[in-house]
Amino acid sequence: MNNIELDIWRGEWGLASIDIECLKVLTYMKFIGVPVRVREVSNPFFTPKGTLPVLRDGRKALTNFEEVVTYLKSLDYSTDVHLNTKQAAEASAFTQHIREKLYPAYQFAWWVDEKNYADLTRPTYAKALQIPFNFYYPSKYQKAAKEMIDALYGEHTDLREIEKTVYSEAEKCLKTLSDRLGESEYFFGNRPSSFDATVFAYLAPLYKAPFPNGTLASHVKGIANLTRFVARINQKNFRHVTDEYNKQNATKQSTGTQSDREAANFPNQTRNKILAAIFAGIAMTGYAVANGMFQRWSSWSWQKTVSLNRFRIAKKHFEKIKRIKAAREESV
How many Cβ atoms from other residues are within 10 Å of residue 69's Cβ? Predict the structure, then answer.
């Protein structure tokens, strides 16, 4: 066996990947302890089937979970060797049950629910993709999910009725899984199997992702032993991912706290700035008006004074001329 490489969708929310199939393979590889070089791919266009994950071992490329399990089993790597015939059959039946009952609800929550798609799914996948593929793949996946729902429930069936049906079926499936797990660490004893990897891959994104419409997620979070199952596998096998996410989240919250304080003070700061500007404007306008009036009053007062002085001088000059004229008449 050469150095194995695994191309996957990037992780988010403390998960190693945002994708079910990628999480299946990643978790299974962790269970069997095979060294693998994991690469987060931002463009699945050039993969063998245009999808992720892709596991490469030399010239061999495998593109789905079943192929990976079969190939690694041929190399004597398997987590299912401890399962007896009955348990193996039960695991197969449960896997099919999940595919029929939980998977449609999963697809509905991620891709068909418009609120979830607009606020969560599309931005998440767009963030994971390169331009221009971030415009192409989310719409492609949404179209495929809608076509699947239409094929299962009828193209012209009311979407609200479909939502009730798929979530009701998913809730029953989750209850069945919970009953089967019980208080055990894994579904078939104290050792993990490929089925545990499958269940974890379905439940972890529903448990971790911040769905705006969290109906399906609430069903998962409301079942204690399933949430413990998710947390246990995530902690044991992807602790470094969880720790890194918590570290980044703490930094964001710290930055956010400062931003929140600034945002909270924003109305007061804005009000103060507006009032200051108004008062400054009033003051400047008042100063300008007052100064102009003073200047006009000063100018008028000066002009009045000059005119009065001129009048007095002229009056004195006139009286002097009048006296001279009177004296000349007396002498005659």
Answer: 22
